């Protein structure tokens, strides 16, 4: 028989459990945890003797107290510890919500990121929040100029519809960076217009060396030609809240389920979508902790199942 005492005891336990989960989702996972997630990918046509390790940093969303400059520096040092050949940043340096105690200005996160090192260099694209507003959503937009200055200060090369030919161990490959696909957004109508130019970016590729594309949003992936072996994206935060059984609560119809998080393929093309580091809308993460991603790209001769480790 369910007595009043049993009911109150059960209700109290449920309340405490809910409070504990809420505290974890608000404080522990977004502010204290940091995973390293690894993928081994062997695209068709990738040279057998070109093995490339890439460190991927996405969606920093710098702000106090969730992502202060000291935490950005810690993330940069974790990326350096992977000893990557190439480091890439996938946009959204600006804070993504209003639940903050203060901004982290571009010169602050830039100084923290200036320690990034990789033999082939450090490259970046911009994200939608870098365009939509200043360092916080409450601050006026400046056409992403503040973020551009921060990246220059940090010694990070920004790619906006640009293609760069790099060489590693005598083997050439192309690194392409797409401008943001949601640079201009109408909150009233929901209409969006991008600064991206995929055709113009691809036109800069002048030979048949393999190519990797950096793009903040994964929207572009269905349009990417087979010429691009690997696309690296952020933006989705991996759903940010990943509920048991239900999965990511992000509206999957916007991306397609396989474009919310992780490694997926479409024909010979591969994509990796990072869960990123910061948060947007609300400072909550659940079962989708912040991550630095390590992607090792190699030829089919060394092909194995994609490796996922945290």
Task: Report on the architecture of this protein.
The protein is α/β, with parallel strands linked by helices and 310 residues long. The chain folds into 2 domains: 1-32; 34-302, 4-Layer Sandwich (Purple Acid Phosphatase, chain A, domain 2). It is built from 6 helices and 18 strands. It has helices spanning 4-32, 69-81, 106-113, 128-132, 145-154, 198-202, and strands at residues 35-41, 52-57, 63-64, 86-89, 102-103, 122-124, 157-158, 162-168, 171-177, 184-185, 192-193, 211-214, 230-233, 242-243, 247-248, 262-266, 269-273, 291-297. A 6-stranded mixed β-sheet has the order 1-18-2-4-6-7, with helices on one face. A hairpin with a 6-residue loop joins strand 10 and strand 11 (192-193). The longest helix has 29 residues, at 4-32. It is globular, with a radius of gyration of 20 Å.
Strand percent estimate? 15-25%
Give the overall shape, derived from the CA principal axes.
globular
Sheet/helix structural class:
alpha/beta
Number of domains: 2
Rg calculated over all Cα atoms: 20 Å
Order of helices and strands: HEEEHEEHEHHEEEEEHEEEEEEE
Main β sheet profile: 6 strands, mixed
Terminal residue distance: 46 Å
CATH topology of the largest domain: Purple Acid Phosphatase, chain A, domain 2
Q: For the record, what CATH class of the largest domain applies? A: Alpha Beta
What keywords describe this structure?
310 residues; alpha/beta; Purple Acid Phosphatase, chain A, domain 2; 2 domains; six-stranded mixed beta sheet; 18 strands; globular; disordered N terminus
């Amino acid at each position: 028989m369910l007595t009043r005492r049993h009911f109150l005891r059960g209700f109290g336990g449920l309340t405490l459990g809910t409070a504990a989960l809420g505290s974890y989702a608000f404080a522990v996972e977004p502010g204290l945890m940091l995973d390293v997630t690894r993928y081994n990918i062997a695209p068709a046509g990738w040279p057998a003797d070109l093995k490339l390790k890439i460190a991927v940093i996405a969606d920093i969303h710098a702000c106090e107290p969730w992502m202060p400059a000291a935490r950005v520096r810690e993330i940069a040092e974790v990326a350096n510890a992977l000893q990557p050949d190439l480091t890439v940043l996938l946009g959204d340096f600006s804070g993504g919500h209003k639940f903050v105690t203060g901004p982290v200005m571009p010169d602050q996160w830039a100084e923290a990121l200036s320690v990034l090192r990789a033999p082939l260099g450090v490259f970046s694209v911009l994200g939608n929040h870098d365009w939509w507003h200043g360092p916080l959503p409450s601050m006026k937009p400046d056409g992403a100029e503040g973020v551009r200055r921060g990246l220059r200060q940090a010694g990070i090369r920004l790619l906006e519809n640009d293609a760069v030919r790099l060489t590693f161990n005598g083997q050439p490959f192309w690194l392409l960076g797409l401008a943001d696909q949601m640079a201009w957004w109408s909150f009233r109508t929901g209409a969006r217009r991008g600064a991206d130019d995929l055709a113009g970016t691809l036109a800069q590729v002048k030979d048949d060396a393999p190519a990797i594309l950096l793009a903040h949003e994964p929207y572009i992936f269905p349009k990417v030609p087979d010429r691009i072996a690997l696309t690296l994206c952020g933006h989705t935060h991996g759903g940010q809240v990943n509920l048991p059984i239900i999965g990511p609560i992000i509206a999957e119809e916007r991306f397609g389920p396989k474009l919310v998080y992780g490694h997926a393929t479409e024909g010979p093309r591969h994509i990796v979508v990072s869960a990123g580091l910061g948060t947007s809308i609300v400072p909550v993460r659940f079962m989708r902790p912040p991550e630095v991603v390590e992607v090792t790209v190699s030829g089919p001769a060394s092909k194995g199942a994609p490796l996922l480790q945290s």
